[in-house]
Design a protein that fits this description.
By secondary structure, the chain is an alpha+beta fold. The two termini are 15 Å apart.
Length: 335
């Protein structure tokens, strides 16, 4: 998971700013979730500012949206490369804000332009994340879906369909949701792993996650609609904030050795598929993951590809046992 830093004293703010600009690979970098607030960042610029990231250019007329989204998009692009072994297509992302909404426009390669609006004052009064973090989450998940559509064309060159990644019914639901979430990295995924580690004995089995009827259209809807012309809701399982403790003053979740809320319903399914795909990818690497996705896209049984694994068999019971042992290592992270 990506490291996070705590806000420093006011006298050290220049160092924090430098770390944020350097991105998540630096010793202090990891995203501006924990930064001390800068009230001037929310001002609307007369001339939009822009910056480059890893495979994208992003511009905005509001500095906090620009920086937060840049950091999180960099993390998503790197996650894509770790997962599939190739760089995602270059993206041009524009965030135009007024006092009420942010209009996001995402252009990637020859894909249709994705445009949606994000309300700066959501109906959900319990929203726990800063505006810039909520905007970044939507931009990242929307960009990740389009990046994965580029992966489809790369892995299945004969495919001429414009069907989006999350609507590819030949790909099992657990694989669609798990891969999307592993690309669309989320600051809350670290907490998810702690929750899953502590609940590992009561999680749905891998055989259950593999079942065709395990996740229907309503279950998949959050992953399909987030970033599609509606504001983010903290209860969406793709975000998962509703099953997280209140955000502390440090600006990050710190589970430690105390109690953490249990994952329930759709959030438990979302977290389980995220961790299962991460487990497989870390064990077998990007070439294996590319073969797994290509097998599914071609309409063949994914167990055919799972059978080529070096560290587990295609038997769901074997994967299940090793997955739960792996999850146990996340239950009590060092404080």
């Amino acid at each position: 998971m990506r490291p996070f830093f705590r806000p420093l004293l006011l006298t050290a703010l220049p160092l924090v700013a430098a770390a944020c600009l350097a991105g998540p690979s630096t010793a202090l970098g990891g995203g501006p979730i924990g930064r001390a607030p800068n009230l001037r960042e929310t001002e609307l610029l007369r001339v939009p500012d822009s910056t480059r990231g890893e495979g994208f250019i992003i511009s905005s007329n509001r500095r906090d949206l620009l920086e937060e989204s840049r950091v999180e998009l960099n993390a998503a692009a790197r996650a894509y490369q770790r997962l599939l072994g190739t760089r995602p297509e270059d993206a041009d992302i524009r965030l135009v804000s007024d006092q009420e909404n942010v209009k996001a426009t995402i252009r990637i390669g020859t894909h249709p332009v994705s445009t949606f609006s994000i309300a700066l004052r959501p109906d959900n009064a319990r929203a726990r994340l800063p505006v810039a973090s909520r905007v970044a989450m939507l931009v990242v998940i929307a960009s990740s879906r389009v990046w994965l559509e580029g992966a489809i064309r790369e892995l299945l060159p004969s495919d001429a369909s414009n069907t989006p990644w999350m609507a590819r019914t030949q790909v099992p639901a657990w694989l669609r949701t798990g891969i999307l979430q592993n690309v669309a990295v989320n600051p809350l995924h670290e907490l998810w792993m702690v929750q899953l580690g502590r609940e590992r004995e009561t999680l749905p089995s891998v055989a259950d996650l593999f079942a065709d009827n395990r996740c229907d259209a309503s279950c998949l809807a959050p992953f399909t609609t987030l970033g599609s012309d509606r504001s983010v809701n903290d209860g969406d399982p793709a975000i998962g904030i509703e099953s997280a403790p209140p955000l502390p003053s440090s600006g990050r979740f710190e589970p430690g050795r105390g109690r953490v809320p249990e994952l329930e319903g759709a959030a438990r399914y979302a977290a389980s598929t995220y961790s299962l795909v991460q487990f497989i990818a870390k064990r077998e690497g990007p070439d294996f993951m590319r073969a797994l996705v290509a097998t599914a896209l071609a309409g063949r049984d994914v167990r055919e590809a799972l059978g080529a694994a070096r560290t587990f068999t295609s038997d769901p019971a074997d994967i299940d046992r090793q997955w739960r042992v792996w999850l146990a290592t996340f239950a009590y992270p060092e404080s």
